[in-house]
Amino acid sequence: MSGIRSSFLLPLLAVLSSSVSATTLVGAPPCPDAYGIHAYAHPESCNSYFLCTNGTLTLEHCENGLLFDGKGSVHNHCNYYWAVDCGHRKADLTPVSSPGCEHQFGLYPDSETCSTTYVKCIYGEPHQAHCDAGLAYDPKTHTCVWPDQLLPYCNPEVIVGFKCPHKVPARSPAAKFWPFPRFPVPGDCGRLITCVDGHPRLLTCGDGKLFDSVSLSCLEPDELPHCANSL
Q1: What is the 3-state secondary structure (H, E, C) of 66-106?
Q2: Quick check: bond before 186 cis, omega within 30?
Q3: Other beta carbons within 10 Å of 48
Q4: Which pTM value belongs to this model?
Q5: What's the DSSP call for residue 220?
Q6: Measured distance CA(135)–CA(154) in Å, rounded
Q7: What proportions of the chain, in percent to the nearest 5, are helix, strand and coil?
Q8: Long-range CB contacts (< 8 A, 24+ apart) of 174-181?
Q9: Nearest 5°: CA angle at 192, between 187 and 194?
């Protein structure tokens, strides 16, 4: 008798399971092909999204502190909530807090004063992160910016370690770049200092080039053999 019951129950459970799955995925777009990974916005919830993995469609949910926008690069196709435009989709921003973290995923100031470090929360665990050299953390934009963009909150001279002169000698290499005079970083061919409105900014040449402390120009590495170890 038990075998007969099982033979009826198994198909019934399969039907129920299929029914729940179909109900859950109402409004989901079909997978475009049988291969690859594709993520799609949920029509109503900014916290959820549809995921096609090699033709299999599933309903996924962003971690606390994250939302879906189709450009997610923080964790599993999701971005920090303050960087997502949900449009008409509803977003649940209720925090799930832990020591040092308001949300399970997020970026937060490391202190109440100007700082070159910040806190990055991953699964509710706080980790100290560092801005690139010469930058300071902006709690309003959640990014690292030039310290002179955070006046008077930040002191650019302290962050960069350089004080811009009020004027430079006429016909000097620095004068050629006025009103944004350049200066070398002692012992560092990879970076330079430029002054913007009297405040220092630490820069790099980019494009694989190095900074020449004599001409104050960015040159190809083979033109500066003494800087061979700076790349």
Answers
A1: EEECCCCCCECCEEEHHHCCCCCCECCCCCCCECCECCCCE
A2: no
A3: 20
A4: 0.78
A5: -
A6: 10
A7: 20, 30, 50
A8: 174/216, 176/216, 177/216
A9: 140
Residue that has been written with the tokens 């992160």 in this structure: 129
Classify 65 as helix, strand or coil.
Answer: coil
Report H helices in 127-168: 156-160
* 62, two tokens: 């962003």
Cα–Cα distance, 158 to 150 (Å, whole number): 13
- Which 8-state DSSP code applies to residue 3? H
For residues 52 and 73, give the distance between their C-alpha atoms in angstroms, rounded to a whole number.
17
**Which structure tokens are listed for 229?**
């170890």
Please report, as a single letter, which amino acid is at residue 133.
A
- The pLDDT tens digits along the chain (231 residues) read 444 333 333 333 333 333 333 334 666 778 888 888 999 999 999 999 999 999 999 999 999 999 999 888 899 999 999 999 999 999 999 999 999 999 999 999 999 999 999 999 999 999 999 999 999 999 999 999 999 999 999 999 999 999 999 888 888 888 888 889 999 998 888 899 999 999 999 999 888 889 988 888 888 888 888 786 655
Q: Residue 119 has what pLDDT?
A: 98
The structure tokens listed for 131 are 């801005």
Specify the DSSP element, H or E, that contains 117.
Answer: strand 117-122
- Report the alpha-carbon distance of residue 103 to residue 83 in Å, rounded: 15
Tokens of 119: 């806190």
